[in-house]
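TICKET #2291
ISSUE: user wants both folds in one file
ATTACHMENT 1:
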Amino acid sequence: MINDASTQTRSHLENQFPHIAQKLSEKWGTPDVEPYLANLMVDHRGSRQGFPSDVAEELMLLDTILWELSDTRKRFLSTPDDSSFSFG
C-alpha cells in the first residue's frame, strides 16, 4: 500500500475494507444501517476470521455512535417528567 497523505487521513476501516466503509456511508441515517452493522460484528456462518483489532474498534465506535443517536436509546432511556417532583 502506498503511504501517502490520503491513506494517512482515512480510518483503518476505509483503508482495509473500503467496500464496507462505502456501504456504511450509504446506509448511515437509514433503518438499514443498524442490522448491517450488527451483521458485520457477528459471525453467522462460522467461517469468518474476524476483523483486525483496529477495524473492530472503529466498528464498535460506529455502533456506539449509532446507539447514541438512535430512537431506540431514546425509548429505553427516556427522560422522566420532572414537573411533579418536589422535596417537600
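ATTACHMENT 2:
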Amino acid sequence: MKRIILIAVLIFLLAAVMAVVGCSRKSHYQVFMEAVERTEALEKGKMSMDMVMEIGFNKEGLPEDALEFLKFFENLKLSLKDEFDKGKNESVKKIFLQSGELGIDAKIYTRGDVSYVITPLIPKILVIKGEELIHIGSGDINDLNIPSLSEESLEQLKNVWQSLYSQENVTALEDIVLDTPGGKVKAKKYRVKLTDQQLKPALKKSMEIISQDKGFMDSLEIMMESMDEEIIIRGILRQSIKLLDQATINSFDQLAYIDRDNYVIEETVNLDITLHFTEPGTPRQYKFNLIIERWDLNREPKIDFPEVTPENSITPGQLKEGFPDPVESMKGENR
C-alpha cells in the first residue's frame, strides 16, 4: 500500500509541475516568449483553469479495500476561476476539486493582506491575515495545513520549464477566431512539442526544487500525518525521481493562442505517460489535460466582497479550538 501511495504522490506532484508549465520576423520562439512574459505581468483581468488527471492502474488480484482506495486517484478534476486586480491587491478565486464521488468547493476573497475563505467544510467565514497565512503555509498551524510552494521555488520551476523552449520546438500555426468567455477574439495558434529526453531531466530537476522547499515539505508532511498516513514525504520524492526512469513519456503537447495585443489568451497542455509496472496496485497509464483561458484583460473586475461580522466569521486559532479538523470531517462524511 505504501508503494501505491508513493506513486500516487509522484503523480500529483507531476500534475503540480505541469500546472506551472502552463503559463516564440521576430522568430516564432521570440514572439511566443515575449507573449508569455507580457501575460505574466498582467495587472487586471479574469482567468479560468480546468485540469483533468486520469490514471489507469493494474488491478488484478487486489482486495476490495485497495480497489476502493485507488478510485480516489483514477479521475481527478480541478477547476479554478480567478478575477484579480493586482494594483488594488484584490481578487476572488472560485475553486472546485472533484475526485471520484468526493467534491470540494471554496471561494477565497483577498483584499490587501487579508483573505476570506467560504467553504461548506467550515461553518463560518474563515478570516486569514497575512502572518497567519505565512504560518499556515509553513506548517505552523496543525489543523490548517495548506501546502504551497514559495515564490522562489515557483520562479525556479518556471525557469526550468521555460529553458526547454527553443527555436526548434516552438512553431506558429494558423490564425484562428476563438470563442472566449469575453467574446470572439482573433488569435494566432502556437505549438510547443517536447520529447521524453527533454522532459525527464526537467521533471527530475523540478522534484529536487520541490524537495528543497522546507515550508512546503513540512506542511505536506503534517497534512499527511493528519490523514493517518505514515509516510516520509522527503523519502518519497527521492524514490519518485527513480520512478521516472521506469516511465515512457509518449507525448507532450502545448498549444498557446496569442491575441493581437500579444497576450496568451488560451493555452492547453496534454501529457501522456506509460508506466512500466506490473505489480498489482501500481499505475500503468497517466494522462493529464490542462486548459487555461484569459479574458477582460486590463479591465477592472467587479468583486463583491462578503459582509464579515464577528458573528459570521472565525479565525484560524478559533477554528482550531472550537471546531473539528476539516480533513477529519471530510473523511467521516465520505466513509
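RESOLUTION: both attachments delivered.
EXTRA DETAIL ON ATTACHMENT 2: The chain has a mean pLDDT of 81.
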